Amino acid sequence: MFNMFADWLVEDVFGLSITSKFGGALHFFIYDTLKILFLLSVMVFAISFVRSYFPPEKVKRWISGKKKGIASVLAALLGVVSPFCSCSTVPLFIGFVEAGIPLGVMFTFLISSPIVNEVSLVMLFSIFGWKIAVLYVLFGVLLAIIAGWVIGKLKLEKYVEPYVFNIQLGESVVQEMTMRERFAYAKTNVIDTVKKIWVFLLIGIGIGAWIHGYVPEDLLVRYAGEKSILAVPVAVILGVPLYSNAVGSLPMIEALMGKGVAPGTALSFMMAMTALSFPEMVLLRKVMKPQLIGMFVLIVTIGIIAIGYIFNAIL
Amino acid sequence: MVIKVLGTGCKKCKELEQNVRMAIAQLQIDAQVEKVEDIGKIMSYGVMSTPALVVNEKVVSTGKLLSVDELMGVLK
């Protein structure tokens, strides 16, 4: 449907050939913008609705008291569905520590929550299909569990700021939402999300369209193709400080993959961008010492590089 | 009525405070609005996702930026 509309617009309205460089780039731009905005709205709505059942206050109750192994799997899965904006990182962290949830399990939650979010999931699915989307989620959750486990084993509790342990957590009953409130919440989230990302999205699609139309194939295959061993770590190290918006990056990645960049390299680049964000590090600094943050960054970076190689091997 | 907006200072928390003030003005009720930014105080309400809204010491909403209309419903 979107393809037909883009065809019609480019060929009949603008009178360009899709096979020409500019026509091809324009077609890519129109088609991607329409498809992504549509899927995004539908999916953010659906997922927000589901999320309204999993506020962090409830999640805390579910995780605390569980055995460590079960708790960390639960934390990773709940990280996927539980809503929290980065400004809640600090209260969330303190709340979990207070509830006696081990540090490793807490990190599992902190890692899986940004990596596997509904927006990147929609983008992956719409651009690369379900197989890559499922693999991405699976490995994102696995990374969160393993990295959390390693952090737990390292006994880094001493690097948590001492005041965290002195805060008294009150008990509160958070009111259940009504069905109508859940729908309203989902609708608000769609509007918020689209408002927040449309600029990044258009820029990303624009650059993607340009790559699609103008960048020569062999250039990228040589530097970032399957045979290039260093491509994965370089992509990850570039991705970490590049944290902006995974959404804007995906259309670029799509175009790059079309030009021969290996899929694992592309996906680990994206994971690096979402998993380790500088603003979140700044927030985490309020509750933990730099050593712990450094450890966290190191372990997650290594994990993402490993995932990049695994993806390249199996895709 | 004492209304507290709990938040560590992010954009959404500030917007919620503004919305609360607008809702009060529209409802023409006598209410005291307080912004709570101290993390210890926020946690003492058992709240882990901000912004949160506390009315007369009772948590009524967490992790949501309520609109003026929604707030008017809550505060009535």
TrEMBL record, chain A:
Q: Any keyword Nucleus?
A: no
Q: Which keywords annotate this record?
A: Cell membrane, Membrane, Transmembrane, Transmembrane helix
Look up the signal peptide feature and give its range.
none
User: Does the record's keyword annotation contain Aminoacyl-tRNA synthetase?
Assistant: no
Query: What are the annotated GO cellular component locations?
Result: plasma membrane
Localization in the cell: Cell membrane
UniProt cross-references to InterPro entries, sorted A to Z: DUF318, UPF0718_permease
List the transmembrane segments: 36-54, 74-97, 103-125, 132-152, 197-216, 228-246, 266-285, 292-311
Q: Which residues form a coiled coil?
A: none
Its topology with respect to the membrane?
Multi-pass membrane protein
Q: Name one Pfam family in it.
A: ArsP_1
Q: Which PANTHER family match?
A: PERMEASE RV2963-RELATED
Q: Which family does it belong to?
A: Belongs to the UPF0718 family.
User: What's the name of the protein?
Assistant: Permease
What lineage does UniProt assign to this protein's organism? Bacteria, Bacillati, Bacillota, Bacilli, Bacillales
UniProtKB/TrEMBL annotation, chain B:
What Pfam families does the record tag this protein with?
Thioredoxin_3 (PF13192)
Kindly give the Gene3D superfamilies that the UniProt entry links to this protein: Glutaredoxin
Q: What SUPFAM superfamilies has UniProt attached to this entry? A: Thioredoxin-like (SSF52833)
Write down what this protein is called. Thioredoxin family protein
- Lineage of this protein's species? Bacteria, Bacillati, Bacillota, Bacilli, Bacillales
Thioredoxin-like fold domain: from which residue to which, for each copy? 1-75
Cystine links in this protein are 10-13
Please state the span of the N-terminal signal peptide per the UniProt entry. none
Q: Which UniProt keywords apply?
A: Disulfide bond, Redox-active center
UniProt-annotated catalytic positions: 10 (nucleophile), 13 (nucleophile)
Species in which this protein is naturally found:
Anoxybacillus gonensis
